[in-house]
Design goal:
The chain is built from eight helices and eleven strands. The chain is α/β, with parallel strands linked by helices. Strands 5-4-1-9-10-11 form a six-stranded parallel beta sheet, with helices on both faces. A three-stranded antiparallel beta sheet has the order 7-6-8. The structure holds ligand BV8.
């Protein structure tokens, strides 16, 4: 039902990386070391206790060295390579598993664990080690301004204009492994649905807060279901 030259937009959430061993947010019922994630992943939380927030991200950044892309990440990279129409992958995830699987047309709307930013000069660096309040900026030399290059609650997600443009042109919107709780990502299905003929598919283990906005639901684990869906799309 999808034309071979159709325009595809994919949105992924934490469920995309769950089978790689990266814990989801709901999986930890939104808590980390007893803190609400919204409190740790926020400018207020960083101002209140920068070392606690640095520890939260240092642990997750270090954990990236122990995980690998799963068959779902590999399937999306294959779809991008072999699809003849427009393709854009937007991820809410801050891990680098999509890139490591070969995805290139990729937007990290909530930032990246393996990048750091200086709040004094706005320089952004690739970053794999720990960060703390004593880290000096390699560009401006200031100390105390380095932070994870992550979009916290209350901050503006990255590349929203590009994302909105792609959603308005999409013929297929594929939403994978997200609970549809966090905005503006949770509102993307509604925008895609405004385009006549756009087909919306949700892939998840269960129904979500936004399931009713989709035409089709694929219930099952991403690493099993996504390679099957990509095979069908490419065989059409
Ligand atoms: C903004 C980086 C202004 C940090 C993240 C009141 C009402 C509505 C909205 C708000 C409100 N109060 C405040 C807001 C706005 C707020 C928001 O939405 N809050 C929520 C809590 C209500 N949003 C913001 O602040 C955003 N900025 O609004 O700016 C603006 C407004 C309009 C336009 C532009 C700007 C910024 C939000 C970004 C926060 N940063 N990440 C970090 O990672 O540390 S959010 C973070 O949490 C993730 O990035 C992700 O977005 C979210 C978690 O969601 P999921 O990815 O869906 O993960 P979750 O665990 O919830 O679900 C996993 C799903 O996978 C489940 O459904 C599960 O069933 C499924 N699954 C699991 N395993 C598998 C699987 N599926 C398939 N296979 C499997 N194996």
């Amino acid at each position: 039902m999808i034309k071979p030259n159709a325009s595809i937009v994919v949105l992924t959430g934490a469920g995309m990386s769950a089978e790689s061993g990266v814990p989801t947010f709901r999986g930890v019922d939104g808590l980390w070391e007893g803190h609400r994630i919204e409190d740790v992943a926020s400018p207020e939380g960083f101002a209140r206790d920068p070392e606690l927030v640095h520890r939260f991200y240092n642990l997750r950044r270090a954990a990236l060295n122990t995980v690998e892309p799963n068959a779902g990440h590999v399937a999306l990279a294959r779809l991008e390579r072999e699809w003849r129409g427009r393709f854009l992958l937007v991820t809410q995830n801050v891990d680098d598993l999509h890139e490591r699987a070969g995805s290139e047309k990729l937007i990290h709307m909530h930032g990246e664990l393996r990048k750091a930013r200086c709040e004094c000069c706005d320089a952004v660096f690739a970053w794999t080690k720990d960060l703390d309040s004593g880290t000096r900026c390699r560009a401006c030399g200031e100390i105390g301004g380095m932070r994870p290059h992550i979009v916290w609650f209350g901050e503006f997600p990255f590349e929203m204009e590009t994302i909105m443009g792609a959603l308005k042109r999409a013929d297929l919107f594929l939403c994978i492994g997200t609970s549809g709780v966090v905005y503006p990502a949770a509102g993307f299905a509604q925008i895609a649905a405004e385009r006549p003929g756009c087909h919306l598919i949700e892939m998840n283990l269960e129904s979500t807060a936004i399931s009713r906005q989709f035409d089709e639901h694929i219930i099952g684990p991403v690493a099993v279901e996504l390679p099957k869906l990509v095979e069908q799309l490419l065989a059409a």
